Amino acid sequence: MTQVIDTFKRVEDKYFITAEQMKEIIEECSGYIKEDAYFKYRVHSIYYDSINSDLVIRSLLKPEYKMKLRLRCYGEATGHSPVFFETKKKYGNIVYKRRIQLDEQEAYDYAEYGIMHHVKNNTADEIDYMMKYYNLKPVVRISYDRQCYSAIHESDVRITFDANVKYELNPESLKEDGNEKELPLGIIMEVKAMDRYPMWLVKILSEKKLYKQSSSKYGMIYTENFETMSPKANTYNSYQMTEQEVKICSVQY
């Protein structure tokens, strides 16, 4: 049985490529990577934000510190699937992610009605603080097909490819309902590493003249739908963490 990991600290770099480039990269990496334990699946994520879109606006301004909150399901959402409520923060180049696992309906009851779930730990407290402090609501559901590989000799290195990205604003659940719009991105390749890239990967990326890009699916959707998703009032100011947030949301992973 594969262990569920609930804490991550790593570098995550994105590269926008074509389907042909994806095929070439997998072929050239074939001696260094293998199919991951979770090889192919569809990801469904609901991103939460305030009425003034504070979290995505802050992210688009590319500050030293930014964060997001999302509910995620791997595979088809059935109403009682195992799902993850997770915080994702980026400080400098390092991504910190923490999550709790809930029953899908339990997660909906918590997010919509404030009915507390069964998990009691620091991550749950952090999520609850964010939900209440920003009065977070479900803003967009993003779904895509993911293909995963892990390095053979470097246990901390994974390469994922995301395709067929679709989204729906103001979602009611994690389940796709046929009203989604496509986000025309081609293929998003993401390299996840705890420390540094192995030299074989640096060589392949360099030869193909591929360079990492700082962007997020949620940020691109917000930009594309600015008239619909932009704040009703311009209340955004330069962000400073409160003393309480520093204490509860500290990145001690």
Brief synopsis:
Helix content is 26%, strand content 37%. With 253 residues, it is an alpha+beta fold.
Secondary structure blueprint with pairings:
Layout: E1 7-17, H1 19-28, E2 33-49, H2 54-60, E3 65-74, E4 82-91, E5 94-103, H3 104-113, H4 122-133, E6 137-151, E7 158-169, E8 181-182, E9 187-193, H5 199-207, H6 217-224, H7 226-229, H8 243-248
Antiparallel strand pairs: 1-5, 1-9, 2-3, 2-6, 3-4, 4-5, 6-7, 7-8, 7-9
What features would you describe in this structure?
The protein is an alpha+beta fold and 253 residues long. It has a single domain (7-248), classed as VTC, catalytic tunnel domain (mRNA Triphosphatase Cet1, Chain A). It is 26% helix and 37% strand. The protein has helices at 19-28, 54-60, 104-113, 122-133, 199-207, 217-224, 226-229, 243-248; strands at 7-17, 33-49, 65-74, 82-91, 94-103, 137-151, 158-169, 181-182, 187-193. A hairpin with a 7-residue loop joins strand 3 (65-74) and strand 4 (82-91). It is globular and about 50 Å long. It starts with 6 loop residues before the first strand and ends in a 5-residue tail after the last helix.
